[in-house]
Amino acid sequence: MGAAALMTMSDDAKAATEWAEHFQGNYRLMTPEEKAEARTRLERRYSAEYGKKVTVDGTEAQPGVLMGYALNVRKCIGCRRCVKACVEENNQSRGKNPGERIEWIQVLRMERGEFATDKMNHGYPEGLGIQVGGNAYTPAGQVLEGQYRYEPEAVPEKDATYMPIACMQCEKPPCVKVCPVRTTYREADGPVVIDYNWCIGCRMCMSACPYWARRINLTNPVLPKEEMNPVTHYLGNRPRMRGVVEKCHWCLQRTRKGRYPACVEVCPVGARKFGNLLDPESEVSLILARKNVFRLKAELNTFPKFFYFYD
Amino acid sequence: MKKLAFHTMILAFCCGMISSAFAQQQQEITCFESRKGASEVVKRDLQPGWPNVKCSPKTGAVLWWGDPFDGTVPMGDMPLLGNVAPGKAVVKPRSEKLAILPMCATACHNGVGPAFNPPTLPKDKKPKPIPTMVGLLPDAQNLQHGRGRIWCLDCHHTTQRNKLVDNFGDPVSIDQPQLLCGKCHGDKMRDWRDGIHGKRIGEWASTGKKRWFTCTECHNPHNVQDGARNRGFVQIAPESPPQLPKGMKDAKYERVHGIAH
Ligand code: SF4
Ligand code: SF4
């Protein structure tokens, strides 16, 4: 009886919200009232769909905050807990079929390399497939294709280092430049976000992003009710639909409420640091002041707010 | 007849409910927060549908905290922490995880006895292997910390064995290992104090409330130089790799088929 009532409500809520969503504008251009209305609509729809009270938050950027992230590449041991914590927090699709499992963080594995005398004449390091010759062409420090799917018994491996990548929240984001419907944009406190409802799924941003950060829901996302995280943000981890692009948004539903992103909290070696770049006392500011820092692909002038460092 | 069937149904239903509740009680999920075997937590609901932790089905590691401050106490005073407001720095007491700790200072090392006043200790600073001790703390038998340059009482208090020791010979709580470790590892201690080394969960603002992970929550002080270690940590099992793209059979695909260019 209860279940039946819930199901009818679900049909109602779904039909009603879908109808209203067709007439919904671009989130960034909505008035505060329209935004609140859109969120309430979604709360009803998600609550019915997932059988529990789902909240869709709309907390805006706070003045005086510019979010920043730093990752200690020397520390990372490649355990992938950040990847899985992100999935738990951000309601990604987790099905079994091709395209149904979405992860925003990728942990790249790099060869440490070895310059042994018996390799003197080995010109073709495995996997690189380019015309090379001599010992100096050892794949040290390179990411071999397919190698971020490493699966050893235990990490860190002797002959590897690891480099996690996800959205770099660029200050000059190429993805924002190419989006034909301007559904992806930089928020005032830094993160680059997506209004999933306005996304047309053209995937321009996916090809524009130099950091392989964006994922598309090619299929209907698979998100079991009991695993769904009911605390969501409109621009953050609310459930997505088929045909829209998604990516890391620095756990907006958490960070706008003051809490660390999920990946920062889970990292067992404490390689991940997050904070306010405008606050000289914050962890990231202290890292920028004290450690050796670099940005990935800095030459592209994307100006990431995600920094790598080592001690 | 119909009524009987109905009653049977109800009975079956109730039994089902009870047995499922029973099964739930039995099936207790324990996972570890930082170091396996030294930081276990039991999964439970803080609110209906809102667990204290979510655990990895593959490795048993905690992946997500429903409440970062669950089970914590305010961190004891630490030098140079003047700018952290009271109650903003909390820790999970280590002493609760160390089952033998309350016994240490009463059962064997009770601080009294002929050899202890004044303490007469072996000149070569080599501990005598006592079977009970070895059995209780196998890690400590082959102590690698300091590569033979330090021994038990460089870190543990001479007469109060449930305490650590600072530079002045005064006891330090086992919940504040940083006061001991910082004696030698000053640079790490400084980075830890500033949030650069080690791990914190909770609020990201520099003035926010955070749960600090103390030294021994992540490092085992007795086997820091474990042979299998790399970068200060013993090796751990990784989480599962990402899904392969459609049509790719394994991660070695490019190696076998070469890369088009
Ligand atoms: S990393 Fe990619 S998705 Fe993120 S802001 Fe930069 S270009 Fe956009
Ligand atoms: S959780 Fe930390 S150590 Fe593990 S892969 Fe992620 S960044 Fe690296």
UniProtKB/TrEMBL annotation, chain A:
Q: Which InterPro entries match?
A: 4Fe4S_Fe-S-bd (IPR017896), 4Fe4S_Fe_S_CS (IPR017900), ET_IronSulfur_Cluster-Binding (IPR050954)
Per the record's keyword annotation, is 4Fe-4S included, yes or no? Answer: yes
Q: Which residues form the 4Fe-4S ferredoxin-type domain?
A: 67-96, 190-219
What's in the keyword line of the UniProt record? 4Fe-4S, Iron, Iron-sulfur, Metal-binding
Say if the entry is tagged with keyword Endoplasmic reticulum: no
Entry coiled-coil feature ranges: none
Q: Which GO terms describe its molecular function?
A: 4 iron, 4 sulfur cluster binding; metal ion binding
- Annotated Pfam families: Fer4_11
Entry protein name: Molybdopterin-containing oxidoreductase family iron-sulfur binding subunit
Q: Which organism is it from?
A: Sulfurisoma sediminicola
From TrEMBL, chain B:
Q: Where is this region: Disordered?
A: 238-261
Composition-biased stretches (Basic and acidic residues): 247-261
Q: Which keywords belong to this entry?
A: Signal
* Record's signal peptide: 1-23
Q: Which InterPro entries match?
A: Multihaem_cyt_sf
Is the keyword Lipid biosynthesis in the record?
no
Q: What is the official name of this protein in its record?
A: Cytochrome c7-like domain-containing protein
Source taxonomy: Bacteria, Pseudomonadati, Pseudomonadota, Betaproteobacteria, Nitrosomonadales
